[in-house]
Design brief:
Number of helices: 10
Strand content: under 5%
Largest sheet: none
Distance between the termini: 54 Å
Structural class: mainly alpha
Order of helices and strands: HHHHHHHHHH
């Protein structure tokens, strides 16, 4: 879904759309775990989502089909993280165990794709070049590390925390993509939306920090 979305959407705008994942995770998390977020956490998520809406309004190359793919990607990613959190908290599965199960489940799908596109892969002109092989191995290794850290963060914290930390990362990716990859018209709406979006991610980090401080000192207060 992400790749389909990028066919008609620039990278910075796609990163902005992805920042709606915290909202999807918050709603799905409430449905699955029946856990109501604090007022500050809820506010931060709404700030992130409103920033995304403002940035999308300023996208002069609006493509409805790509946005629908992007929204589908957001919902699927939110559901994926909620399942990880559920398996970690309810089923007591570690991040490594879930990563292993996820890899096994993906084998049939990628096996079919590999079989269908085998001849095209063999015809790739740079297939035997050392530079391509090294780059491919580096990308594969980084992908494995990224998946493990995402699984570990979700099982240790929550799906909502994983997505909100990603908002801060996406802020830097958006700026880099805007200047290096191009394809973005820096309108007032787009820049304002990005700033609001990033501010919402920082507000969420502060909200979780406050919650952790309260939990840390709560036993001492009760003991006194």
């Amino acid at each position: 879904m992400a790749l389909f979305a990028l066919t008609g959407m620039n990278v910075p705008m796609y990163n902005a759309i992805r920042r709606c994942i915290p909202f999807a995770s918050m709603v799905l998390g409430y449905i699955v775990f029946v856990k109501k977020p604090s007022a500050l956490v809820f506010t931060s998520i709404m700030v992130v989502t409103s920033g995304t809406a403002i940035a999308a309004f300023g996208d002069l190359q609006f493509d409805l089909k790509s946005y629908l793919y992007g929204i589908s990607s957001v919902l699927l990613m939110g559901l994926h993280l909620i399942v990880l959190q559920y398996n970690g908290t309810k089923k007591k599965l570690s991040a490594l165990n879930q990563l292993y199960v996820n890899s096994i489940n993906c084998i049939p799908i990628f096996g079919i794709l590999f079989a269908v596109n085998f001849h095209k892969l063999m015809e790739y002109e740079h297939l035997s070049e050392a530079q391509f092989i090294i780059s491919f191995m580096a990308v594969t290794g980084c992908g494995c590390l990224l998946n493990y850290t995402m699984f570990l963060c979700t099982t240790t914290n929550s799906a909502l925390t994983t997505t909100c930390v990603g908002v801060i990362k996406s802020g830097f990716t958006t700026v880099i993509g805007m200047f290096l990859l191009g394809g973005v018209e820096p309108t007032v709406y787009f820049i304002t939306g990005q700033i609001i979006n990033f501010s919402g991610g920082m507000l969420y980090s502060y909200a979780k920090y406050r919650e952790n401080i309260v939990l840390l000192y709560k036993p001492q207060t009760n003991g006194a």
